[in-house]
């Protein structure tokens, strides 16, 4: 006898949405079903949408949960409801993640991760922030927060205030909101300068070697990832990891106190946001042009 599929319906902002298989386990170790996931997306929506709406969106879909097959989706899934807006760029019809019904529609399709382009849809040349990606070469890297703190302190010594964000997986990104209108290439030159300095200062910890097989156990100081056409795990995206971790901006005091990537997940992120708000949105914009001009004079 065939089992009748579960189908529910919710109305959000005047839009009726069908919810299929709400009891399906998506993160089984964390006890997160599809219904729980959608509830958490509602709580995350003001923050996740804020950091995705003006970017090109790539999602990663896990139709049967994090331990089964997955695929990347750039083009808008079909059939597309009328309320879902899209924008075409480079021959790809991207979903515009600009409202809660769209987010929940993607969530119902088991889009568990949301990755946003560094470049803006209306200005692909000048980003709003500068990003350094600290990428461990090992699956377990107990030094990642130490590395983030060292780079943050070095940037502070240059007069640059930065914010650390967990990837939700194994790495940490340092984000610098920009007051200057700089190009990706200009920011790369600053990243190369800082990266090479950090590898000279701590050759046991950092490398700018792109090939993983040549890195050993060192953490990759990736200043090349921040570029037009490339993406980042969006702030506040869930990740397809057993602990249902969420990519989360942190305060430096939290890192000094021993915060770990696994501490921030779908089951506690709402309470954190109620308490601290969006640390990334509140971070002050920085002027990097003086450093760029210094490097050009060298």
Main-sheet strand order equals 13-14-10-12-11-16
Written as H for each helix and E for each strand, in order along the chain, the element string is EEEEHEEEEHEEHEEHEEEEHHHH
Annotated CATH topology of the largest domain? DNA primase, PRIM domain
End-to-end distance: 76 Å
GO molecular function: DNA ligase (ATP) activity
Pfam families: LigD_Prim-Pol
Organism: Paenibacillus pasadenensis
Domain DNA ligase D polymerase: 33-279
Topology:
Elements lengths: L6 E6 L2 E6 L4 E3 L4 E2 H17 L4 E7 L9 E3 L12 E4 L2 E4 L4 H9 L2 E10 L8 E7 L8 H14 L5 E4 L5 E6 L6 H18 L4 E2 L11 E4 L8 E3 L15 E2 L1 H5 L12 H8 L2 H4 L6 H9 L1
Helix pairs in contact: 1-2
Provide a compact summary of the structure:
The protein is built from eight helices and 16 strands. The protein has 298 residues and is an alpha+beta fold.
Explain this structure:
The protein is an alpha+beta fold and 298 residues long. It folds into two domains: 7-120, DNA primase, PRIM domain, CATH 3.90.920.10; 129-297, DNA primase, PRIM domain (Alpha-Beta Complex). Helices cover 28% and strands 24% of the residues. The strands form five sheets. The protein has a six-stranded mixed β-sheet with strand order 13-14-10-12-11-16. The chain has a four-stranded antiparallel β-sheet with strand order 6-5-9-15. Helix 1 crosses helix 2 (100-108). The longest helix is centred in the middle third of the chain and has 18 residues, at 184-201. The chain starts with 6 loop residues before the first strand and ends with a helix. The mean pLDDT is 96. Residues 33-279 form the DNA ligase D polymerase domain. One of its GO terms (molecular function) is DNA ligase (ATP) activity. InterPro entries: LigD_pol_dom (IPR014145), NHEJ_LigD (IPR052171).
């Amino acid at each position: 006898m065939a089992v009748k599929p579960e189908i529910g319906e919710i109305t959000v902002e005047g839009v009726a949405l069908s919810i299929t298989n709400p009891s399906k386990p998506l993160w089984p170790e964390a006890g997160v079903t599809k219904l729980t996931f959608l509830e958490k997306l509602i709580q995350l929506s003001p923050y996740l949408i804020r950091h995705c709406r003006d970017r090109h969106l790539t999602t990663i879909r896990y139709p049967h949960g994090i331990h089964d097959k997955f695929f990347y989706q750039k083009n808008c899934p079909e059939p597309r409801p009328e309320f879902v807006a899209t924008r075409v760029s480079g021959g790809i019809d991207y979903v515009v993640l600009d409202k809660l019904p769209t987010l929940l529609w993607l969530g119902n399709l088991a889009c568990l991760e949301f990755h946003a382009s560094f470049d803006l849809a209306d200005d692909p040349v000048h980003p709003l922030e500068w990003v350094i990606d600290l990428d461990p070469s090992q699956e377990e890297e107990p030094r990642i927060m130490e590395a983030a703190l060292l780079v943050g302190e070095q940037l502070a010594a240059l007069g640059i205030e930065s914010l650390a964000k967990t990837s939700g997986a194994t790495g940490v990104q340092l984000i610098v909101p920009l007051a200057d209108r700089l190009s990706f290439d200009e920011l790369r030159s600053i990243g190369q300068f800082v990266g090479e300095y950090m590898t000279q200062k701590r050759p046991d910890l950092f490398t700018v070697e792109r090939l993983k097989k040549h890195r050993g156990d060192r953490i990759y100081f990736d200043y090349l990832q921040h570029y037009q056409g490339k993406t980042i795990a969006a702030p506040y995206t869930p990740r397809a990891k057993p602990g249902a971790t969420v990519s989360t901006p942190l305060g430096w005091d939290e890192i000094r106190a021993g915060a770990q990537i696994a501490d921030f997940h779908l089951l506690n992120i709402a309470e954190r946001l109620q308490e601290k708000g969006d640390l990334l949105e509140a971070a002050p914009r920085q002027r990097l042009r003086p450093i760029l001009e210094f490097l050009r004079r060298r």
